[in-house]
Amino acid sequence: MNLLHLMVRVLDVEKSLKFYEIFGLKEVRRHDNEGGRFTLIFIGDGKSEFLVELTHNWDETEAYGDGKSFGHIAIGVANIMETCDRCEAEGHTILRPPRDGHMAFVKSPDGISIEVLQNGDSMEVPEKWANYENVGSW
After folding, report:
1. Is 120 part of a structural domain of the chain?
2. Mean confidence (pLDDT) of the chain
3. Is the pTM of this model over 0.90?
């Protein structure tokens, strides 16, 4: 297991980048998704692999409010299928199953969305997860 990133939603990219620079975090990479109308900007300190993902939803214009801008924590795992099986067996909600063999979302006991990412290549998807429906928002 390795911590990869945490995600926060931002309204003003430049203002947010300037803020995080105070703490020594600089842009590492950026991805624009025109179809989804969002931009992902990953920032880090250059020393650690752990990043902060700033998500800018292009059409969002109103402030998110206290606590609404936090998105998720991402954790890389050696076997996403075993991890999701264990989460389910222990009674945790699978918000988005690992249908692609690479990514899933699980709800923590405190309601935080945890993005689970397969380290390395995507895994073969068992039928159980291939037909599993999304639950709620992730």
Report:
1. yes
2. 91
3. no
pLDDT (tens digit, 9 = 90+) per residue, 35-90?
Answer: 999 999 999 999 889 999 999 999 998 888 777 788 888 999 999 999 999 999 99
Pair of tokens at residue 15: 């203002």
> Which distant-in-sequence residues (6+ apart) come within 8 Å of 79 by Cβ?
118, 123
Q: Is 61 in the same domain as 82?
A: no
Exactly one of 49, 115, 124, 127 is catalytic; name it. 115
> Within a domain: residue 136?
no
Distance CA 103, CA 99 (A): 8
Q: In this structure, are 14 and 57 located in the same domain? A: yes
Domain span at residue 28 reads 2-70
DSSP 126: P
pLDDT exceeds 90 at position 101: yes
- DSSP letters spanning 67-125: TTSEEEEEEEES-HHHHHHHHHHTT--EEE--TTSSEEEEE-TTS-EEEEEESSSPPPP
Instruction: Give the Cα separation of 9 and 13 in Å (integer).
Output: 10
If asked whether residues 44 and 8 sit together in one domain, one would say yes
Judge whether 60 counts as a catalytic residue. no
